[in-house]
Amino acid sequence: MSTKINDGWNTRLGVILAVSGSAVGLGNFLRFPGLVAEYGGGAFMIAYFISFLLIGLPICWAEWTIGRKGGLLGFNSAPGIFQSVTNNEKYKYLGVIALIIPVGIYFYYLIIESWCLAYAFNYFTGNINFQSPDEASAFFQELTGISENGSAISLSTNHVFVFVLVSLAFNFFFISRGISRGIEKFCSIAMPTLLMISIIILIRVLTLGTPNSEYPENNINNGLGYMWNPSFESLKNPSLWLAAASQIFFSLSVGFGVIITYASYLKESDDVVLSGLTAASTNEFFEVSIGGMMSIPAAVAFFGVTGLTQIGLSTFNIGFNALPLVFAEMPLGNLFGFLFFFLLFLAAITSSLSMLQPALAFIKDSLRLSHRKAISILFFITTLGAYFVLFNSKDLKALDTLDYWIANLLMVFLATAQIILFGWKIGIKKGLEYAHKGSKIKIPVFYNFIIKYITPTLLIIILFNWIWGIVNLGNPNQYIIDLFIEPNLTAWNSIGLIFILGLIITFCLNASKRITK
Amino acid sequence: MNIIGAILLTVSIGLVTSLSIFCYYKILTFKDEDLDQDSTS
């Protein structure tokens, strides 16, 4: 018996909030402030905004347009969309990458999402009250099972396993309800809630003043100064430009395979230019206006610049080590700790939902299965993948390896391919003609040149930079060491998992008469 | 925070906030009839 599900967006705002929800995640609140502090403070923003205009927006518009066009031609998954918009069967294989990315990222993103839920729960029940960095670090290690494979799998609320089950149930409850009744409805509630919680925490952070009068230099003003005082000299550093471009790229969720799937459910008369700009600007608002003033200034106000530097500026260090110590020092710290981690959980779940939809659409497109059967297959595959990451928790090796190879290399590759497809294969004139159908605003004329020449060139530079990081065997990075110099079984298994996923997708694609014909 | 840092912070937040407000204003005041008139003209 098939379950009838209404696949399509109910409102214009609904699709925008869903795409924004996909983009707003942990990177906005934790990764972005770390990069600004590391790369020249306010000067970083110059490179950041230039990257937004030259890389972020063009790919956004290209993905929205390609997705809607593919949807109008009868496809909701990447292989069918790429094949139909180019009228060339070979391009369907590009869609395999567009499916590996969201599913592969979901494998480990579900686990990180569950960490956030675990912290929120433990704050809510009063189980967290760290007095030292060692206590914070010990809790994180026990929760994640970082010391030994399989050690996170237990029903204790000090381990992540039980929270993975809850997150899994959340994701599949909403995804099984379809686009409008599931994803759209959830994001329509989650995004305004996210905004409200962010503003409450932001107000608390900005009114911290000088928390400890014995250390008057540790105050919120110096925290903001640490993040935003510019060092214009650092603009000469190519790493700053690459970091800014990468942050824009990852933060907007472009090259992710999600926007094309979401846009494929739009009608011909639906706008894509203004919708794309709105979703991107929503993400930027959360990242700059809220993420830019929250975590690092608060940490500096309590521990000073030296203390924060000792803890570290990486995403996980800021989120799971530094901030819990901040909340421990703060009046009503448990409440704000709960709110902050619940905020991260909401941001994460709007993103993980978006990672499931492309594969679900593919299973339905290619195998012509009912919604319920497609959900069952998706559940089976993604749960196995997530269990692999959960079990191989030692040093977070599986999570880290999947993140490096999928979220970095494959995403840049897919975005580069898509912008070349839009500007050259479809053609910039025809591409913009598609984009402007139903559009309320027009893409400025100078973007013809940017989309055709500038964006692909910049993306190729980023791609080559990544490839150089891989082939530069004179100075190999940890990921190359794990594979070839000191082979690590978990790292190899993670790569194997990506290949198996690719093979399953390719097999289904070749077996699918609908997409092949 | 020094004065240049404060200016960069204010300008950055001003840019993204005003862009968001502009977009949501356009979205929320966007009527399908506007589109029909555009296509007719």
What's a concise summary of this model?
The complex is a heterodimer of chains A (517) and B (41). With 517 residues, chain A is mostly helical. Chain A has helices at residues 12-23, 26-38, 43-72, 78-86, 94-124, 133-144, 161-176, 178-206, 220-228, 238-251, 259-263, 273-290, 295-311, 315-329, 333-367, 371-391, 397-425, 428-436, 447-471, 478-485, 489-511, 513-516.
Describe, in plain words, how this protein is organized in 3D.
The complex is a heterodimer of chains A (517) and B (41). In chain A, α5 packs across α7, α5 packs antiparallel against α15 and α5 (94-124) packs across α17. Chain A has 517 residues and is mainly alpha-helical. Helices cover 74% and strands 0% of the residues of chain A. Chain A contains 22 helices and no strands. Residues 1-5 of chain A have low confidence and may be disordered. Chain B is mainly α. Mean pLDDT of chain B is 79; it is low at 35-41. Chain B has helices spanning 3-29, 32-40. The longest helix of chain B is centred in the middle third of the chain and has 27 residues, at 3-29. The interface between A and B is medium-sized, with 33 and 24 residues.
Structure keywords:
heterodimer; A: 517 residues; mainly alpha; 22 helices; 74% helix; globular; disordered N terminus; B: 41 residues; 2 helices; rod-shaped
Separate helix tally of chain B:
2
H-E string of chain A: HHHHHHHHHHHHHHHHHHHHHH
Taking Cα atoms only, what radius of gyration of chain A do you get, to the nearest Å? 22 Å
User: What is the mean predicted local confidence, pLDDT of chain A?
Assistant: 90
The stretches of 5 or more residues of chain A where confidence is low (pLDDT under 50) are 1-5
The CA-CA distance between the termini of chain B, in Å, is: 53 Å
Overall geometry of chain B comes to: rod-shaped
Specify the overall morphology of chain A: globular
Task: State the share of residues found in helices of chain A, binned by percent.
Answer: over 70%
Q: What oligomeric arrangement do these chains adopt?
A: heterodimer
Strand tally of chain B is 0
Q: What is the residue-mean pLDDT of chain B, rounded to a whole number?
A: 79
State the end-to-end distance of chain A.
Answer: 27 Å
